[in-house]
Amino acid sequence: MTIPRIKGLVWLAALAPLGVLVWQGLHDDLTADPVKYITHFTGRTALIILFITLCITPIRRVTGWNGIVRLRRLVGLFSFFYAVIHLLIYLAFDRGFVFTELGKDIAKRPYITIGFTAWLMLLALAVTSPQAVLRKMGGKRWRALHRLVYVVPVLGVIHFTWAQKKDIHLPLMYAAVLGGIYAIRLAMWARNRIGFGQPAGEPVN
Amino acid sequence: MLIGRPDDISSSEITDESLYWTRREWLAAAGIGMAAFLPGRPLVRLSASQELVPNKWEEVTGYNNFYEFGTGKEDPAENATAFKTRPWTIAVDGEVAKPGTFDVESLFKGLTAEERVYRFRCVEAWSMVVPWNGYPLRDVIKRLNPTSKARYVEFTTLLDPKQMPGQRYDVLEWPYVEALRLDEAMNPLALLVTGVYGKPLPNQNGAPVRLITPWKYGFKGGKSIVRIRFTEQQPKTTWNIAAPHEYGFYANVNPEVDHPRWSQATERRLGKLIRQKTLMFNGYADQVASLYTGMDLRRNY
Questions:
Q1: What's the pTM?
Q2: B58, HSE (Cβ side, Cα atoms, 13 Å)
Q3: What distances in angstroms separate CA B274 from CA B130, B270, B283, one per listed residue?
Q4: Residues near B35 by Cβ (< 8 Å), separated by ≥ 6?
Q5: Of A12, B24, B132, B154, which one has the fewest beta carbons inside 10 Å?
Q6: What's the pLDDT tens digit per position in A41-76?
Q7: What's the 3-state SS for chain B?
């Protein structure tokens, strides 16, 4: 299958959660508090897609399918897409688009401070995602900025945890998955370093 | 000044006059005792946010916090279907003339059931309007005859992990315990609820009997009550044990005192998209503010 065709499938898969929301909306199945439901749903979706983005490099290593890297930006942008809906719903229905209220929340409520920080980081990644921007910035600076992709999901999971009233088993599951992804990536990174840094047979000093 | 100017809400709002809306057509279909139900009667003119339009049956009975049956809002309706609420006894003990165990029916025998359309404000900043049926708590307390030492009254929920799957997890300390100061409990607004919308209380709402104190956050209203205890000391209450900085003993609805993690200034009335302002004491300041004269409500949250 060609990359453009696979990208088509990514579009379909990534828009499926939105489709689920629309379907639920049409069938009056958004719970008694639709605003909260949609807010939570899009927040979780943004996180899950971000996790998938982080899995792309490991999948590439394991399968040897190098082309998959060309899907990474698209997948990442869909995470931002759901994060935008997440924030807009909160802004519109919880804060009535009163930005001073948002300011107060950001200053006063740690889970919103951290969530909004994560959102700004995603914004920075999204606006610098086009090739043209990469060229303008230079690969080194661009890559440095895009290391934020490792920070955002951590902030996201903390935001998710602190937003709970009491039962944090779901955010803890997200934390466990994220921990697993980082463990795999760390192991791969360590192996690479050893692999490149110490050719076989050479003594370690 | 923490206690705001009393809200200009007519007291008819909280009386037992049923101000049902005729659009609740299922109600007519149910054909239940509609003596007080006057179709076509105009609602008392109130501003939009204060209008006491009951939420839909599906909202009242399908969106519940009842951790004994799961922490999701829709869990209780799903997991409480087989819950046995008869026979049901309530133990009465502590500072009371005649301790004992009463059948739930005998506890209310001879008392007049009332219907109260109350605002219901969850500490999570959502709200409903619910037409409850029940008995003024004060009438029951007078009947139980607490001693002069009694200063608090404590309500304990059933502990039965076999029937209550949520109790198999220690998300809270079980059994669930809530309590009121005795003068709060004697306030005419406090209601022991046995029904909603003229029907027996559904299991997920705390059958067979639960407490409703409409000027306090919803968690103060213990459900499926099996024990009423009168005490001299302030009882330890479940949410206060779980997170003392977030949930106080009083838990009065107060738009000026935020939850540490979210604002209490506004609320989302289920069924409405835009938030509305939360009223001091949930709109019942006229009836209850005097209970807290001289108290710092910021400290006694």
A1: 0.83
A2: 9
A3: 19, 10, 19
A4: none
A5: A12
A6: 999 999 999 999 999 999 999 999 999 999 999 999
A7: CCCCCCCCCCHHHHCCCCCCCCCCHHHHHHCCCCCCCCCCCCCCCCCHHHCCCCCCHHHHHHCCCCHHHCCCCCHHHHHCCCCCCCCCEEEEEECECCCEEEEHHHHHCCCCCEEEEEEEECCCCEEEEEEEEEEEHHHHHHHHCECCCCCEEEEEECCCCCCCHHHHCCCCCCCCEEEEEHHHHCCCCCEEEEEECCEECCHHHCCCCEEECCCECHHHCCCCEEEEEEECCCCCCHHHHHCCCCCCCCCECCCCCCCCCCCCCEEEECCCCCCEECCHHHHCHHHHHHHHCCCCCCCCC
Contact A166 B242 (CB under 8 A): yes
- The first and second tokens of residue B211, run together, are 């407490």
Chain A residues in contact with chain B using a Cβ-Cβ cutoff of 8 Å: 31-36, 93-94, 96, 105, 108-111, 162-163, 165-167
Where does chain A show beta strands of DSSP type E? none
> Which has the closest alpha carbon to B143: B173, B197, B100?
B100
Chain B residues closer than 8 Å to A163 by CB: 261
How many helices (DSSP H) and strands (DSSP E) are in chain A?
9, 0
Nearest-neighbour CA in chain A from B151: distance (Å): 30
Which tokens in the block code for residue B56? 């839909």
Mark yes or no for CB contact B275/A111 under 8 Å.
no
Segment A122-144 mean pLDDT: 96
Mean pLDDT in chain B? Answer: 87
Q: What is the mean pLDDT of residues B222-234?
A: 98
Residues facing residue B181 across a β-bridge: B152
Task: Return the residue of A nearest to B124 by Cα.
Answer: A165
- Per the structure block, which two tokens stand in for A101? 């209220």
Partners of B195 in beta bridges: B133, B200
A66 Cβ contact partners less than 8 Å away, ≥ 6 residues apart? A60
| Contact between residue B226 and residue B212 where contact means Cβ atoms under 8 Å apart | no
For B280, the token pair is 């001091």
Distance CA B76, CA B203 (A): 8
C-beta atoms of A166 and B172 within 8 A? yes
